[in-house]
Amino acid sequence: MNIEKFIKNKKIKLTDARISILEKLFAAHRPLSYNDIKEHISMDKATFYRNIIKFQEEGLVSSFESNDKNRYFEITKSPHPHFICTSCNIIECVQEPVVFDLDGYQIEDIILKGKCESCVNVK
Amino acid sequence: MNIEKFIKNKKIKLTDARISILEKLFAAHRPLSYNDIKEHISMDKATFYRNIIKFQEEGLVSSFESNDKNRYFEITKSPHPHFICTSCNIIECVQEPVVFDLDGYQIEDIILKGKCESCVNVK
DNA sequence: ATATCTTTGCAACTCAGTTGCATAAAAGTC
DNA sequence: GACTTTTATGCAACTGAGTTGCAAAGATAT
Q: Are strands B82-85 and B91-93 parallel, antiparallel or unpaired?
């Protein structure tokens, strides 16, 4: 993915900090928290979070809160559910569609919680 | 609901603080956060959170994190999905069952996020 | 090159939830 | 009821993710 193209036409400037955040999010195949990537990016956390806010305003990035009190971020793709393991806290993107309709409500995201394949057999 | 009976046979003592937390959770028809009920209970927040931990150890209470950085608590009933409004942050229990199976995974809870009936028409 | 507007790092702050510790209050026993 | 043991409580100090104010640095347009 070409980050420059990705940011073009959005009303935000192209900076090293922004490129490295987006590169990390593109490379991951699951949502990441600040703690997941802070070792791999060299910027203040204020810069990280302020850029995330910008990305979300532009619709480039989506986020949600997990069990472990961290917020998780991913490049906005076609909507898909997420799975959060209540044992090891890992987060995965779910490929299978979850169909659900609630009269009068507009569903934007679905989060499934439970035990992942690794944890389901442990205890 | 009789709180004394509810707590009986669990390895925790019956105290005023515990009774008032459980009463509030029973009376509500949706999950509540500490902020939701702190005005209506007279105890230190340390006492509140420590008791919630006990209740969860005994399986009396369940909880999850929401969008607004607060943790929400409810009396453990038969499993049902929850809806979180991304505009007004209200949380509702969903009565319609959501069927979903993920091979090798054990689903414990389903959280739907989106716009509630009041917010879906606003913006 | 220069002017303008945006972004950055730093440090200080916020706020939900946690922890240590001394005191108080349950529950069981006599 | 008085005594003993165990558990619960309040207070204050702490933690850690995320936020904010501000001055300095960097991006883009002219």
A: antiparallel
Return d(Cα A51, Cα A66) in angstroms, integer. 20
Per CATH, the number for B12-75 is 1.10.10.10
Q: Is the domain defined by A3-75 classed in CATH 3.40.50.700?
A: no
- Residue A56 clears pLDDT 80, i.e. is over it: yes
**Domain boundaries for CATH 1.10.10.10 within chain A:** 3-75
**CA/C1' separation B47–C25 (Å):** 14
Mean pLDDT of A37-42: 96
- Tell me, in Å, how far CA of A73 is from C1' of D14? 29
Find the residue closest to C9 using CA and C1' atoms: A44
Q: What is the DSSP string of A19-85?
A: HHHHHHHHH-SS-EEHHHHGGGS-S-HHHHHHHHHHHHHTTSEEEEE-TTS-EEEEE--S---EEEE
**pLDDT tens digits for range B21-79:** 999 999 999 999 999 999 999 999 999 999 999 999 999 999 999 999 999 999 999 99
